[in-house]
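Sanity check. The docking grid for adenosine-5'-diphosphate depends on where the pocket ends up, so I'm generating a full predicted complex first rather than guessing from homology. Inputs follow.
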Amino acid sequence: MADLSFFAQGQLISVLTAQPIDRFLDYKVPEGGCFIGSYVEVPLGPRKVLGVVWGAGEGGYDLKKVRAANRVLDVAPMREEMRQFLIRAGDYTLTPPSAMLRLATRAPGLGDPPSMQKIYRLGDSEPDRMTDARLRVLGVLRAYGGLSFTLKELADQADTSSSVVKGLVKLGTVLEEDTPRDQPYRKLDPEYGGVDLMGDQIAGSEALRTAVNTGAYGTTLLKGVTGSGKTEVYMEAIAACLRQGRQALVLLPEIALTAEFLVRVEKRFGASPGEWHSGVTMTERRRLWRMAGQGGVDLVIGARSALFLPFRDLGLIVVDEEHDSSYKQEEGALYNARDMAVLRANCCSAQVVLASATPSLESWSNAEAGKYKRIDLTSRYGAAVLPDMHAIDMRSETLPPSRWISDTLKKSVNTRIQKGEQSLLFINRRGYAPTTVCRACGHQIGCDLCDARMVEHRFQNRLMCHQCGESKPMPEQCPSCEAVGKLAPVGPGVERLAEEAKEAFPDARIAVLSSDLFGSARALKEQINLIAEGNADIIIGTQLVAKGHNFPHLTLVGVIDADLGLQGSDLRAAERSFQLMRQVAGRAGRSDKPGVALLQTYQPEHPVIRAILSGDEEAFWNAEAGERQVAGVPPFGRLAGIILSSPDVQQVFDFAGEMARNDGPLRAAGVQLFGPAPAPIARIRGRHRVRLLAKADKTVHIQKALSAWVGQFRLPNNLRLSIDIDPQNFF
Ligand code: ADP
Ligand code: ZN
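Predicted complex below; grid placement will be based on this.
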């Protein structure tokens, strides 16, 4: 019987390379033949590049001109489901297949022959003469039974030099052997450890086990406060997956979280998983990539890019802290690992577990709609308690104009300062002031393109729309009544709140944390470490502080404007401030000092505020979903950001203008286009950036419309275009 996926030498094959060429290339099959999915090395101009056999070649031209592939690589062919995943993920994110293949081949030396290493184990013959060092070497080898060591490991363990080991090799006392470097990982034992689950953990793990045992696709939202045992519960799903002989993948939002997780895996399964993130060596990456394909690794824990490993039989993907915005890749291929995990699982009949204390509205509404199953863990394991939450009714506080820290909050902060504890004043707004008003006519400067007000950024001396990215210089005169010098900032942003805090607490050490105030990630990290060590009394922060940082001295959270999210000027403002409050709450409850959260609000009776205070999360999500539904924004409508960039500012604006004028294919499909406008970060690495925003109903196939629209234009060489489907941030 002929194997249909086999190609004999000389036949034509169509190859996808990881090079930035947006088409498949034909080659002739090299000696020995190949399969669909085989990794091949092919000539491209003067170079040799990596590619994957995607199917039969097209033909229809002078066959003599077609070059032959150089060779087939010695790695497991890419599976059908993986090829399907790359194409579907590329279609969704509007990323070309070549760029998707790049994501899937991020390991060095895939084309190299399997490299060998020398290992050492115990032989039979006795040494002619025994020394202390020799005795120690033999002692190590005997102590570990049949195990073998590398030269360095053995010498280190025996606390001696490698020449002692080599001397024993000459005598035949120690044996030296060659073995492939890329060894399988130790097998995980699903019956090794585990805790006695209790309460709703039992039903939760049972439901996940049942789901995994179906061997089919499905997604479950696993929701529970920090410390409720979500990790323990999904470990049981991993165990079920391992019993089925399938592989599992756990995605974590930050490398910093992996160390603790490794310890827990060891305790539960008696061995370590494979690790895939930026902190892993190149040799180890290569090993893991190959072992994923051969089934030589049972469990991988990693960053979002681990989704693109060539698993032989992936049965389960856990996305821990699924709401975390770092799952969104914001450079190159713009994808959200949470969504891609669901897609990947769909392609390979695997289960997905999305774990979070504060799920994203997307996942919550997918569960509501019945697309995902949902498991709730309602109580904390052990004695930890959530902090108190109270409203400060701003209608009964007497604040002078342009002041936002109420007396009640001020007193509370002062108490913490006296006790040597920290306070966080949280405001979910970058910049100086959210609104600019004309004192002559009352006009508020709004965005020309959206129903949103412009935000003053005093640092940059501009007004910006955080919705679509439009920005303009701060005007001298009112655009409405033309009065000069009457424009005034109204309301606080993080820059302005810091100004006030310095006056209100003159002796306190104040630290400001806002993403646009730091030049580098390292500078930011240093600031965060300083704060964590207690070198600040008051932290003024935007949503940046939500990112799982642990401030052990923090006992008070003051939310300056809890009503902010209710106005809908920033798509996810309410969702994020809600998540932040829940997260801060979770942390404060873990330390020995109880925490308090105070919410300043003019609408304490508003359903969202009431939901936050009462801890009635379902009410919150229902209210928030209602608002989004009315506005027609995600997850009830579709958005796509289009960013054009070029070193030439005139060129990029002209081109964006031309694209906006020729929006026929978009309009025909029911997609609205806003812009062009300068991106909020108008220049990155010397490139000027311009932004457009596309908005459509949920029913519209927005990718198809965008492709047709973009396909009309020929991009000049130095101009780059990227499309961000489901944008998380507007920058
Ligand atoms: P989450 O992932 O929801 O934050 P964890 O699974 O990390 O919660 O559980 C919090 C802590 O409580 C962990 O140290 C965990 O080992 C422990 N724990 C949770 N459930 C149990 C249980 N049934 N028996 C023993 N320890 C448990
Ligand atoms: Zn706008």
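Relevant for the grid: Residues 48 and 564 are 56 Å apart (CA to CA).
Also worth noting: The chain has a mean pLDDT of 87.
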